[in-house]
Amino acid sequence: MRADHKFFYAGFFFFLFTGIIYTQVTSRMPALKEQTGIHDGDVGLALMCMGLGSLAGFLTINLVLRYLQVRQALRLSSLTFLGICLLMGLVHSREMLFLLFAFWGFSCAYLDVSMNTHALYVEMKTGNPHMAMMHAGYSVGCLAGSALGSAFAFMGVALFINFSTVAVLLGALFLYFHGALLPDPPKTTEKEKTAADNTVRPQRRFIPLFVIFCGLMGMFSYTAEGSVAEWGSLVLHQVKQAIEGVAALAYGVFALFMAFTRFGIDHLRSRLGDRLILLCGSSLAFAGMLIVFLSPQAVVCLGGYALMGIGLAPVFPIALSNAGRRTDISPKAATAAVSFVGYTGLLVIPPFLGFLADHFGLGKALLLPLAAIALVIAGSFAFKGRRSIRCQHA
Questions:
Q1: Statement to judge: residues 33 and 136 lie in one domain
Q2: What is the mean pLDDT of the chain?
Q3: Phi and psi of 330, rounded to 5°?
Q4: 209-229 vs 298-312: helix axis angle to the nearest 10?
């Protein structure tokens, strides 16, 4: 990547930005819970509101992008995402927290679609694949956000001061990078569209079952990852009796090992095949989740979260890749279907996990993500081996 490709670094920044902001909230969840007086079931409901908001965002983003360029949507959604984070530092009402999480999910969906579309523009501009690197930026952002949240928790800094300090730092970087975002490519003419339509492969009227299956694999992966992102700090703080500063490291450790693993996933796929990678990875994630479930030591549990980060890193990228390689559905439709099914789990899993935590204890509620990883292990056998893997570049 040449030094003058500022648009690449601008795109990378927004993935980093999203990860930092997201983990500012999740790593300080114990403090947010205390500030608003909510219990574990309410945390689940708040996350369900975030899921509902996200689905509303995914259903409306295409309409909005008819009138706004991707870079405009990316700027607006990122500022909204940051602004709602700041408001969370001031909220003391249970109902207001639910509302904020709903709008946070809505803006997150816009941010997700916009920054991923811009990443595609970067690939088109440079002629090289960069999507994995962009998503690694998100994981690095989660690590940085978790470390910052842990530091502020150790110092006993109030939520609003914590969030405001980070907002100032990210705001300065936003001002530097936002002007380098790429514009939308020129629209094709009707004649070009007709010519392109004549080359499209035959499509099914209905979504193939395997594509839905890939979406379910994504949902199971999100369930396990969400148990770390939204509940990890609470598990360490409430169940393992860790101080808040240590508890805030839960998702950061997970994200660190996930980031490093994702840098090498494409190379491993060409050598080992999807089935073996998914089987070994999900088995490693199962072992890590089992450690968190059984061990009373917070430090040992952090090691379990590290194993989960390594093991879950390839699941969603491989599921998307396999769905997009099918010949009976367009890659765009397949990706949308996998994402929609995966995100639909956000409506059910968080409140159900909160229900289990309220009625059986947060420690026993971890059986849910453990079962989700077991389903990923079972589902790995539906994927092909090494001979079926072929690299495809957009």
A1: yes
A2: 82
A3: -70, 150
A4: 160
Structure tokens at 7: 């648009």
Instruction: Say how far apart CA 63 and CA 333 lie, in whole Å.
Output: 16
Same domain, 256 and 359: yes
Q: What is the pLDDT of residues 250-288, one digit of tens each?
A: 887 888 898 888 877 767 877 888 899 899 999 999 999
Report the amino acid identity of residue 50.
Answer: M
pLDDT in tens, 196-221: 445 444 555 678 899 899 889 989 99
Give me the mean pLDDT over the 307-322 stretch.
86
Q: Is residue 82 part of a domain?
A: yes
The residue among 27, 74, 77 whose CA lies nearest residue 53 is 77
pLDDT at 43: 82
Q: Is residue 341 classed exposed, middle or buried when 0-12, 13-18 and 19+ CB atoms within 10 A define those classes?
A: buried
Structure tokens at 230: 């939204």
Helices 94-126 & 6-27 angle (0-180, nearest 10) = 160
